[in-house]
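**Archive record**
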Amino acid sequence: MASFAGLDLLATAVVVLDDEFVVRYANRAAENLLTAGARSLIGQPFLGLFAEGADLERALQDARVIHWDYSARNVTYVRTGREPVPLSCTVTRIDSFGMALLAELRPISEQLRIEREARMESEQQANRELIRNLAHEIKNPLGGLRGSAQLLERELERPELREYTQVIIKEADRLQTLMDRMLTPHRAPRLEPLGLHEVLERVRSLVRAEFGIEIVRDYDPSLPEILGDREQLIQAVLNIARNSAQAGSETVIFRTRVLRQITILKKRYRLALELQVIDDGPGVPEEIQDRIFNPLVSGREGGTGLGLSLAQTFVHYHHGVVEFESRPGRTIFRILLPIR
């Protein structure tokens, strides 16, 4: 099946089916996932590989006759003498080389990650609009409040009373600064070629100067340059690193790697950069883990809850995503950026 030889380069398991739903090609990733050689898979009825054969057949018929493709469906791969394997199966109609369908198979965990990213992107967009509108509504009365306090201060004869007007003015200024931070992300990125390690070295020097903690570097020297907004990426990484430092971490690790054939925000990329910010702090409180990237959500007393939200926004502007996993003693924030 030389026509599909290029599919061997994919990290995703792919099989090609004919009109009778018989396997006619399986790439190397499919061999690894299904723990079977291509020779043993080719010629096998695709439906016979899964416990949900009847339901899957209806979906395949639908994909072949009505739609060009259908969304991922959970199936159970049955192996003789071994535990069943839950998979996500996405089928696309191809109508080429005498074949009918192309099926992509992924472990459920990967599919859940893709769905979680899509849901997070939608929620972030809604949150950004809400915060933007709220910030605009608050900024106008703040100006009037501050101006009135200044006028009142001039009319006060007793100097000790001016202490109270100063409280009003300072709190109004603090809220003004907060509103400005909420509105900051709505600047489009200014793209230029840059190296991610330059960004990390700048963040490393800032965090070490501010908190005095050790930041260990584990860099992949093969990382290529990307097109990005230097200031936005510095701020995104700085917010995450500061979050680790403020949580009481003693050591933070910056780790970079190149990823191949990865899906980010429902788009497939041949290459991507991965930055891991790893700390040994107490971890993200379980009760806020589902909302950690929402504005005004913070696990730290006195925190504004804007740092991680802004980091996610800036990374989204670069078509990337921020993910995390956390337990006491080890928290990992992952920034994924496509290489275009």
Q: What stands out?
A: The longest strand covers residues 251-264. The mean pLDDT is 82. The chain has eight helices and twelve strands. The radius of gyration is 26 Å.
